[in-house]
Amino acid sequence: MLFTTLFEIISIIFMAIRYLLIGYMILSFLFAFNVVNSSNHFLTSALNGIDSLLAPILNPIRKLLPDSRGMDFSPLVLIVLMLIIETVLANYQRYYL
Length: 97
Fold this sequence. Notes:
It is a single chain. With about 100 residues, the protein is mainly alpha-helical. The protein has one domain. It has three helices and no strands. Helix 1 packs across helix 2, helix 1 packs antiparallel against helix 3 and helix 2 crosses helix 3.
């Protein structure tokens, strides 16, 4: 019972982080491909705010990944890692509890 509640809390946190990561990736691609000008203060502050929230999680992954010349693949790696963790927890919950 307790593990089910913890798994649901972890799932909600991971879902919120995934939404932030997707928003961060979309905004960073828009800026990288010059779809959005950097003089747009609202989107620039939104990107900086999301980046400051996600930086503690993404910086260790960025250090491990090789330089990809402007493309940041750390959000994609983090999404895959979170999906793997959720799958392991769900299988543990299904088979052992």
